[in-house]
Amino acid sequence: MSDVAAMQRYAGTLAEAPPWFTTRDGARLRARTIRPDDAGRLVDLFNRLSSESRRRRFHFNPDNLSEELKWSTACALADVDNRTLGGAVAAVEVDAAGEEQIVGVARLGRPPGEPDGPEAEAAVVIRDDYQGRGVGTELLRRMVLLAKQMRLRTIVAVIEADNEAALRVFRNLALPVEVRTSRAETEMRFAVPE
Fold first, then answer.
1. 15: phi then psi, degrees, rounded to nearest 5
2. Which CATH superfamily is domain 3-152 in?
3. How would residue 65 be classed by pLDDT, with cut points 50, 70 and 90?
4. Which pTM does this prediction carry?
5. How far is CA 177 from CA 6, 67, 69, 156, in A?
6. 3-class SS at 48?
């Protein structure tokens, strides 16, 4: 992708992005920012992930967490303002009754105590049955728009070095990047477009 095409991909604001997108195989999903009332949906997403997907996302095996810890973590992850310390965009499946299920999340988190810091760490997780369908690509595109909204200059992604799928999706951001691999982890530092 050329620099011009990459910049067009990230033109505008998150608020201007269409609320719906279509996966590679035709599923229609809603994209929106995370809200505090999403805690239960985040617990449901966690419970629907395979052990491998959980380990890849959290960099340890969280399979035996208590329900209390799942809920407290989900409440903390859903409590973001999308401006200062953290933000997240979600891909949501909506059924005929209007009920929502989160199928993927891309989030940004600044270091604690740095609400105006220039960089934030990125994390993404996609429910197993939606992996490979373009959901991660669309969420990361919107995550870059969120980074602009948060006035970030750098997005940092720390990925297990053997996680080829995640590395590929992050490389597809087509942004200027510095890459460093050490101790089985690859750190990617992306420049956020203005």
1. -65, -25
2. Gcn5-related N-acetyltransferase (GNAT) (3.40.630.30)
3. confident
4. 0.90
5. 13, 38, 35, 10
6. helix
Question: Do the Cβ atoms of 89 and 106 come closer than 8 Å?
Answer: yes
**CA distances from residue 3 to 6, 73, 168, 182 in whole angstroms, order as listed:** 5, 38, 18, 28
Could you list the beta-strand ranges (E) of 72-193: 86-94, 100-109, 119-126, 154-160, 177-182, 185-191
**Interval 139-189: pLDDT, tens:** 999 999 999 999 999 999 999 888 898 999 999 998 999 999 998 899 999
Q: How far apart are CA 146 and CA 177, in angstroms?
A: 18
* Domain range annotation of the chain: 3-152
**Which tokens sit at 59?**
């960099």
